[in-house]
Specification:
647 residues; alpha+beta; Immunoglobulin-like; five-stranded mixed β-sheet; 18 helices; 21% strand
Length: 647
């Protein structure tokens, strides 16, 4: 694990800047003066690629002094890179030891976790914060009143309950409270933890997950949802049930245990905000997870199982992992897996038997994408990546976790099956589009292991850092695996086309640098954050050229691996790599895409013919049902290509 303090990272990056750019160029970067925005209410974060005014004054010193400083910068750069690759010893890492007992039939689990937390701040603290992600509820949520025959309420959302908290050293009870509508666990330690010191606690908990109606997870439901989002512009938010559920014989536990909140210095990232984007934001940790499950239930995690012990009626599976930000679990009656190895990384495709052919294609795409990204970005800190065929609800096409991603089963399609023969004709005609969308999505979720898992960020505040960069990485996969012609088609259909259709439906152009909560639904989020944001990286590549562009990306990746980065880190990496005459242009490029509304100029305006065919003035009264297929049957291939994409 490459944990460095903010000040250490700043010094290391300054050394890299000195080596690559010389002092005059660094001084030029310092004069660009973009504004650093507060991070989740914290104090503004200083850009770690920039130098102080004192460094700027050195430009006028004699040439000999500059040469001496450049030599010193080169030496510091080498030392900085070496330091950046020194892993912390295991005893200095955050660590979870979790034991889960899974009752698959009742959709419940009991757990106990032992957590080692290390105070990496500058001051003692006696308060710890954990996120309880299964307890997130969307605004206006009303609990159901329907009951089972035994009198229990039928829940449509998961629930994580805290039973007790104790000191791991002596078992003494520790007081705790639930804050923020029971989404935050606040633990009040009896003794403050000094800087660099550690504390270990044990948390006992139990949880339940809802049963999802299979009708919510089919291809028709996904397409109708996308059409509805386009024509009605209704507000959507991610729900806890989206990644914590049981459906079609598969159970997903996306973040089913108390998870330490991320921390920057002495400040905790406490709040979880409901939005259309991802909510998980955590620090990298080591995991030892033991799961008791019935023998007929296969259990999968981000890493292959270490040991399996058979007991009466149950298997006990143990998993060991380093440097993961979370630990998602998938279990099911008939799940299978196949795997390949690329370098030191094992890639697994986990699937149901009726999806075997598609799952093997997913594995091949993931293997090819892994080769591209390893060569272009650098090695991953994790040694295993899994892609799961999961029955996700219609508001989610995919879900990404550290070391494990899920793609909606709805898109693991056999177009020759009897099921597809019963689909509306506009969908049946989109075989090539659906298969291409699956390939794009596989490349996208694999890229998230670099952008989001290895390099962390706040996806609520700056979703463009992981979502847009993963989307651009999928374009890179197309370019290097299929050539420029197919990459150009993918750019038009997967990026530009999404934005243009959104604008044709009357969606407003927006800045791609906004917080996730400011986007209304998946259609708007895909058009602005994922597509417009990705096109910013393509603009930067064309501006800088491949050599400097990929050098900047690699510097950003290596400097922030296993850290939590922000937009200043990314912007600074590109400015540091640019030639002196390009630096202001690079800065303006970031501003143009992130902070202004120039999408129609840069991407393309709305399509008036398509708008006329759609009869858009009446769209507000449209209903999200099968009638949309009749109403829009005449609008042609482009519309249905977009509506059958995975979002």
């Amino acid at each position: 694990m490459h944990h460095l303090t903010d000040e250490s990272k700043r010094r290391n990056r300054l050394a890299v800047v000195k080596q690559r750019n010389s002092l005059p160029r660094v001084a030029e970067a310092a004069t660009l003066g973009w504004k650093s925005q507060p991070r989740c209410g914290l104090s503004p974060k200083r850009n770690r690629y920039l130098v102080s005014p004192l460094a700027q004054s050195r430009v006028s010193q004699p040439i000999a002094s500059i040469v001496l400083l450049l030599v010193l910068g080169l030496t510091l750069s080498t030392a900085a890179r070496n330091q950046n690759h020194q892993p912390l010893p295991p005893e200095k890492r955050l660590r979870y030891q979790i034991h889960l007992i899974l009752d698959f039939e009742s959709r419940t689990y009991d757990g106990i976790e032992r957590v080692r937390w290390i105070n990496r701040g500058d001051h003692p603290t006696s308060t710890l914060f954990f996120h309880l992600y299964p307890n997130i509820r969307f605004p206006g949520y009303t609990p159901p009143t329907e009951k089972t025959p035994s009198g229990d309420l039928i829940s449509d959302e998961p629930l994580l309950e805290i039973m007790e908290v104790r000191a791991a050293s002596n078992g003494a009870p520790i007081p705790f409270a639930l804050d923020d509508q029971e989404t935050t666990l606040r633990i009040n330690l009896r003794d403050a933890v000094a800087p660099s010191a550690a504390v270990e606690i044990e948390i006992k908990f139990k949880g339940t997950v809802p049963e999802i109606d299979p009708e919510e997870t089919g291809l028709l439901a996904h397409v109708v949802q996308q059409v509805s989002a386009a024509i009605r512009s209704t507000r959507e938010v991610r729900r806890a049930r989206d990644t914590n559920f049981r459906c079609r014989g598969v159970m997903m536990l996306g973040a089913a245990y108390p998870l330490l909140a991320a921390r920057s210095g002495d400040d905790w990232f406490r709040r979880i905000e409901s939005s259309i984007g991802d909510a998980l934001m955590t620090d990298a940790s080591d995991y030892e997870v033991t799961i008791d499950a019935p023998r007929n239930i296969a259990v999968y995690a981000p890493v292959p199982v270490q040991t399996v012990q058979q007991k009466e009626g149950a298997n006990t599976s143990t998993f060991m992992a380093e440097n993961l930000r979370d630990f998602a679990i998938v279990a099911g009656r008939d799940l299978r897996s196949e795997e390949k190895q690329v370098g030191e990384v094992i890639i697994r495709s986990i699937f149901r038997p009726d999806h075997e052919a598609t799952a093997r294609r997913v594995l091949k795409i993931a293997e090819d994408a892994m080769r591209v990204y390893l060569a272009r970005f650098g090695p991953l800190p994790m040694k295993s990546i899994s892609i799961v065929d999961a029955p996700l609800v219609s508001t989610m096409g995919s879900a990404e976790f550290a070391g494990l991603s899920a793609i909606a089963s709805a898109f693991y399609i056999d177009f020759d099956s009897s099921t597809m023969r019963n689909m509306p004709e506009p969908i049946r005609e989109q075989r090539a589009s659906v298969e291409d969308s699956l390939e794009w999505t596989v490349a996208h979720v694999v890229a998230h292991q670099w952008w989001g898992a290895a390099v962390g960020n706040d996806p609520g505040r700056e979703p463009v850092l992981d979502e847009a960069l993963a989307n651009w990485s999928a374009l890179l996969y197309y370019r290097e695996s299929h050539g420029e012609q197919q990459a150009a088609s993918a750019l038009e259909e997967q990026l530009r086309g999404v934005y243009k259709l959104y604008r044709t439906f009357g969606g407003d152009d927006m800045e791609a640098g906004r917080a996730a909560r400011e986007y209304r639904n998946s259609f708007q989020y895909a058009a602005i954050v994922a597509s417009k944001g990705a096109l910013m990286f393509e603009a930067l590549r064309k501006l800088l050229g491949d050599e400097k562009f990929f050098a900047a990306l690699r510097d950003y990746y290596h400097a922030n691996s296993l850290e939590v980065a922000d937009m200043d880190d990314l912007r600074g990496a590109f400015i540091a790599e640019a030639a002196v005459e390009q630096r202001r242009t690079v800065n303006r490029t970031f501003d143009r895409w992130l902070s202004s509304k120039r999408g129609d100029e840069d991407i393309g305006p709305p399509d008036p013919k398509l708008a006329a065919d759609l009869g858009l003035p009446a769209r507000a009264t449209a209903k999200p049902d099968r009638n949309v297929f009749t109403a829009f049957a005449k609008v042609g291939k482009f519309f249905w290509q977009q509506m059958t994409k995975i979002r």
